[in-house]
Amino acid sequence: MKAKLYDKKGKQVGEIDLPIQFAEPERRDLIRRAFLAIMSHRYQPQGVEPMAGKRKVVELSKRRRRFRSIYGRGVSRTPRKVMYRLGASF
Rounded CA gap, 54 and 68, in Å? Predict the structure, then answer.
């Protein structure tokens, strides 16, 4: 297979022989695979935290009439001040 050579003005100067790899038929599946392999380097790797949803900051009593329960404080979610006497949550 031959390729034409051009100068800066666009005139044909000559021809050169191309390597044998240029004579092979193109395989779109390999082109796509190589493209995706290169583009996948741009993605930031992400993973799942193994302890997601299992962590808790404080152990709370959710019984209504128990000492230091979470009811009647005006808050609905954890974490809450449980062990200290200072503040509005005791």
Answer: 23
